[in-house]
Design a protein that fits this description.
The chain has 321 residues and is mainly alpha-helical. Helix 9 runs antiparallel to helix 10. Pfam families: SpoIIM.
């Protein structure tokens, strides 16, 4: 390969690394390290085939300046868990706000579709939720306790079962992103339609407020984090569809790695959602103000950690580097 062709092939990657090195842009420590490895490989190649060229001088200068930067950025705190949730993940997730927005819009759209379909087709709710659930809920409504389904099982069993099931659904949303993001969008569609049908079912029975104040106690976090898992799936799928300057395989590896980090971030929230559904939601006698407080706190927590906080961490990193 001629030196000019070698430069044209790799210059965007080198420029990205140089911008990060001189604080013109912010990238995660892992990505910075990966770029450093690729740059040193390119330097070795250039030394072999263009030993007297300007490319060697250029790459050598960047590699030398980057050495301390890499080890400073890659240095991990003593508490890896805290470091991940406090800094590493928010900085990573800052780059994926667009995917989060797309996952939210798709989910919201199909939730509306679920409401509309349930309103125009009397059999639609049974098709989506199943005859067993619908009949059981109708019996509970007749008994004067429409939310009795949340009181049937033992608290601990319900907590464990629901948490594991929610994580399973989220993993489907993530892993199916490998089908060029289509699989993830299908999971968003499926769950959105189910939610819309569920909401309309209780609305039609005149129980919209009672059902909402109950299910959103745990559902605020549960539904939100499923959408975030959808974001992880889109990150994975888009890494295959849009590899940018990387090879498709390398882009896929990066998408898988980043998607897994997003999934890890959701685990504590799924545990909280499972706890709320297993131990708190069943107390339908709680005052409205308490239910609203739990729902509002959950919503603020999700918006802060996944939307506001990544921006704050990014700006803080930009200021201090």
């Amino acid at each position: 390969m001629r030196e000019a062709a070698f430069v044209n092939k790799n210059k965007e990657k080198w420029q990205l690394f140089e911008d990060a090195l001189y604080q013109k842009t912010i990238i995660s420590p892992d990505k910075l390290s990966d770029l450093y490895v690729e740059l040193t490989d390119d330097l070795s190649y250039a030394k072999t085939f263009y030993p007297n060229g300007n490319t060697v001088v250029y790459l050598n200068s960047i590699a030398s300046a980057a050495h301390q930067k890499i080890y400073k950025t890659k240095k991990e705190s003593k508490n890896r868990f805290t470091s991940f949730f406090k800094t590493e993940f928010p900085l990573l997730f800052y780059s994926y706000q667009k995917e989060l927005f797309v996952a939210f819009i798709v989910f919201a759209f199909f939730t509306i579709c679920g409401v509309f379909s349930a309103a125009t087709d009397t059999d639609f709710v049974r098709l989506i939720l199943g005859d067993t659930y619908v009949n059981m809920t109708l019996e509970n409504i007749e008994k004067g306790d429409p939310m009795a389904v949340y009181k049937d099982a033992n608290e601990i069993n319900m907590f464990v079962g629901i948490t594991m099931n929610n994580i399973r659904v989220a993993m489907y949303a993530f892993v199916l992103g490998i089908l060029f993001s289509v699989g993830t969008l299908y999971i968003m569609m499926q769950n959105g339609i189910m939610l819309g049908s569920f909401l309309y079912f209780f609305y039609e029975k005149g129980l919209f407020w009672e059902s909402s104040r109950t299910i959103w106690i745990h559902g605020t976090i549960e539904i939100s984090v499923i959408v975030i898992a959808g974001c992880a799936g889109l990150v994975l799928g888009n890494s295959i569809l849009f590899p940018k300057t990387y090879s498709r395989l390398e882009s896929f590896k990066r998408g898988m790695k980043d998607g897994l980090k997003i999934m890890v971030s959701t685990i504590p929230f799924f545990i909280v959602a499972g706890f709320l559904e297993g131990f708190v939601t069943r107390h339908t006698e709680m005052p409205d103000w308490l239910a609203i407080l739990i729902i509002g706190t959950s919503l603020v927590l999700i918006i802060f950690y996944y939307v506001i906080y990544p921006v704050k961490v990014y700006k803080n990193q930009l200021t201090h580097e």
